[in-house]
Amino acid sequence: AQKITQTQPGMFVQEKEAVTLDCTYDTSDPSYGLFWYKQPSSGEMIFLIYQGSYDQQNATEGRYSLNFQKARKSANLVISASQLGDSAMYFCAMRFTGGGNKLTFGTGTQLKVEL
Amino acid sequence: DAMVIQNPRYQVTQFGKPVTLSCSQTLNHNVMYWYQQKSSQAPKLLFHYYDKDFNNEADTPDNFQSRRPNTSFCFLDIRSPGLGDAAMYLCATSRASGSSYNEQFFGPGTRLTVL
User: Fold this and answer.
1) How far is CA A46 from CA A4, A41, B4, in A?
2) Each residue of A50-77: pLDDT tens digit?
3) Which of A71, B12, B25, B115 has its CA 20 to 30 A from that of B18?
4) Cβ of B109: how many Cβ atoms within 10 Å?
């Protein structure tokens, strides 16, 4: 079975600092994709970044980067230069090729950015 | 802008009174999903449509039904809402893809209250 684990229910970071949100996964499927979504208090899920299992380089999107360690089965999200607007819930999710179109979500990490 | 729209954003219903939530998309995506998200939890997939093919999750209660009259619209019907059905309901869409890259685009959600 596919499983996503986020072990940090809550994180605090000071404005302008970098923060790492942890995500580990378990799958026996060799082909899979890992996604990070941001969910502000308004409720909408916002796609941030994607990493494919065969990608050679770590994904980056602006201030977001993904620290992908395939052997350890981890896909941690790094947010650089945190802003107050980054305060939100962050979900790691996985899609594996054998699973159709479905995403499996982790339990999320609530990030609070402080002045 | 292409998007996923959910109406209404907030819905209040009475215990046992049927309610319908609406989702529409301008992305022309094949796949549409309905998720239930309770407070401080990860989204839970209820079902999804691949074109007109309906795919129910094994643990989705019979109380939840869905209709997809055309590519653009999808409805979630709750036949007899209970207090435990109070949640945020998220609609999402994606292209059908055999690869692991399959970003899902989410609507803003409908927050359902059951009195």
Assistant:
1) 18, 12, 12
2) 999 999 899 999 999 999 999 999 999 9
3) B25
4) 24
First-last CA distance in chain A: 41
Of A29-33, B9-13, B86-90, B107-111, least confident by mean pLDDT is A29-33
Q: Which residues of A touch B103 (CB under 8 A)?
A: 35, 47, 50
> How many angstroms away from the CA of B49 is the closest CA of chain A?
10
The alpha carbon of residue A46 is apart from the nearest alpha carbon of chain B, in Å, by 7
Residue of B48, B100, B105 with shortest CB distance to A96: B100
State which amino acid sits at residue A30. Answer: P
| Measured distance CA(B34)–CA(B43) in Å, rounded | 9
Residue A3 touches chain B, beta carbons under 8 Å: no
Please check whether residue B10 is in contact with residue B81, taking contact to mean a CB–CB distance below 8 angstroms.
no
Phi (first) and psi of residue A30, to 5 degrees = -75, -20
Per the CB < 8 Å rule, is B109 touching A44?
A: yes
B48-52, B86-90, B97-101: least confident range: B97-101
Chain CA centroid to CA B74, Å: 8
